């Protein structure tokens, strides 16, 4: 809806009313159309102000409407009518003016923004383009390079930047509506011809072809198969090269393709999934709206290796007071220097003062006695972590939450080392911890809802997307990664190469394939785990066949590389070779290829041609299958949790929505059929055996992903 009123005698005030972000639903559009008509036909009204209720101008089109039949007045004629009005219309921008919200403002003759407002055209992140004239008006207003930047990245900008670019006419720190009304009174009689952006010529640079060529190359490189950024460039090109009306036609044509695309559906699903994971629920029914976090003022980080340093930086940037403990003097000195550098660089980038003074460094664990929450980030070794938790339990004040940054270890076991297991949760950060957005908050059977709520709240403060998950080996992300990596090893045995397998995964949209990722994180990490599990025995010591463990197929390839000291990037050799230890550019390694040939010959394996489809089906469907098992086990409360973990922590291409959404797009019946096929061919690989939840979903007609929770509830209630 939109409310019309007359203020200051002659200003028609139109207030958008659709909490929480005044999205342009059908009712809001109807309200705007009616109010504009009323303002223009009322002789007492000399000028108009459009604002939003509750300090938010407008969060854009109502994304929830995209899935169904769109009704109500369309946006484009509505905005044209505003621009064509013979009375000045001023947008009063508070909070956000995003997407269709900014396009509405661009249709107004003037824009006044509050200093704290954020503006942007984020449609690209929803798989769309600004199709209510945004791609045609913005370049005419601020020039092609700046418009390309905003439209292809979708980034939100501050009011100050909007003023500098010429998007807004004035920025105020006072009441934006009052400022806009005063402004509207002043411009009431002014001519409007020079204020209609659609009539502006598009400012031209000397070499348009080169400019667009460069822009296209840039988006194609970063988009990894996403189609919206490419369409955005094409639409802006139309603004630069064609008259406004033709440009609008091109915008409409490009939008029509995007609007019904699977990518747009996937990205819009991600938008809502990202918000859904904040509404966490534990199997015992405790959830986000009944469990309140406890205030946290002082935090400690224990262990200042790579992960600890990243966590420390992310914490210090929140403004919290942090005690950083590292018992090794040398490591402490190095960490101090590294953390200061990271904080200074981060502050410079964000144009703020570095928060170095928030941190107190210590070598003594007793200095955490007064903190409200501890994040332990020592080496991934259970015995070491046990000892730290015993010490923490003894030195911390009563009620201190004890969190462990582990990627796989048993949270409940660590909790059992303390006097108050209900205060213990896992906080699984992803490297680099000050950059990566994902945080798995892991609750054990004894973790209290308040501990989960507090860790989730702290994560949010640190700028993370927290996903609450249950306690099992590898939690959600790494548990699903295991069968994925295993399949990649098997594909190598059967004739694949790291290059071909990585290429298939990168063409699918991952930033790097499984072998490059493995080289980056270090082959020795998995080797240590496999040794701990008694899997990576050298064949001489082993009683069993080198390719079988407990009756299951096993590939010792990763172990054999580690035995050669090939740990990946850090040693200069892994699945690829690197110019020197620490280099990042992976090059094909002839040694590896002859090693694979020798290995196959030794084990009587005949190499066959493996195509891209098989790589994707085997690696991705097996990972998805484990995702279904995780849902069945109640480790994740819904498919959204898994998808957000994969998109934000494991490089799953966002325009494919995450593994569980992708399974729905492919068709659950097809995923099931291919898993059955591969399991038949490899009966000694249990991960390929389709999970019963997948079978149940297929049997119940493959319902859409947003209804799976209901099916899962039924399945679980029958167990
Ligand atoms: C052929 C068709 C032609 C159509 C032509 C017109 C096309 C226009 C394209 C668009 O305008 S697409 C939309 C562009 N806008 C956005 O992408 C903005 C999305 N929203 C945000 O970025 C944020 O929500 C915010 C506005 C910055 C506010 O952030 P905040 O952290 O304060 O709140 P949230 O938790 O994110 O959101 C609160 C609540 O509101 C829901 N919501 C937000 N924006 C929209 C929206 N545009 N449509 C529908 N719903 C929206 C969000 O889902 C949350 O809901 P919940 O139920 O409370 O979780």
TrEMBL record:
Record field: catalytic activity: (3E)-hexenoyl-CoA = (2E)-hexenoyl-CoA; (3S)-hydroxydecanoyl-CoA = (2E)-decenoyl-CoA + H2O; (3E)-decenoyl-CoA = (2E)-decenoyl-CoA; (2S,3S)-3-hydroxy-2-methylbutanoyl-CoA = (2E)-2-methylbut-2-enoyl-CoA + H2O
Keyword ATP-binding: no
Pathway the protein takes part in: Lipid metabolism; fatty acid beta-oxidation
One BP annotation, GO: fatty acid beta-oxidation
Locations listed in the record: Peroxisome
A GO MF label: NAD+ binding
Known EC number: 1.1.1.35, 4.2.1.17, 5.3.3.8
GO cellular component, one term: peroxisome
Stretches assigned to the 3-hydroxyacyl-CoA dehydrogenase NAD binding domain: 298-471
Limits of the 3-hydroxyacyl-CoA dehydrogenase C-terminal domain: 474-578, 615-711
InterPro entries: 3-OHacyl-CoA_DH_CS, 3-OHacyl-CoA_DH_NAD-bd, 3HC_DH_C, 6-PGluconate_DH-like_C_sf, ClpP/crotonase-like_dom_sf, Enoyl-CoA_hyd/isom_CS, Enoyl-CoA_hydra/iso, NAD(P)-bd_dom_sf
Domain of life assignment: Eukaryota
Keywords: Fatty acid metabolism, Isomerase, Lipid metabolism, Lyase, Multifunctional enzyme, NAD, Oxidoreductase, Peroxisome
Family statement: In the N-terminal section; belongs to the enoyl-CoA hydratase/isomerase family. In the C-terminal section; belongs to the 3-hydroxyacyl-CoA dehydrogenase family.
Quaternary data: Monomer.
Annotated protein name in UniProt: Peroxisomal bifunctional enzyme
Gene for this chain: ehhadh
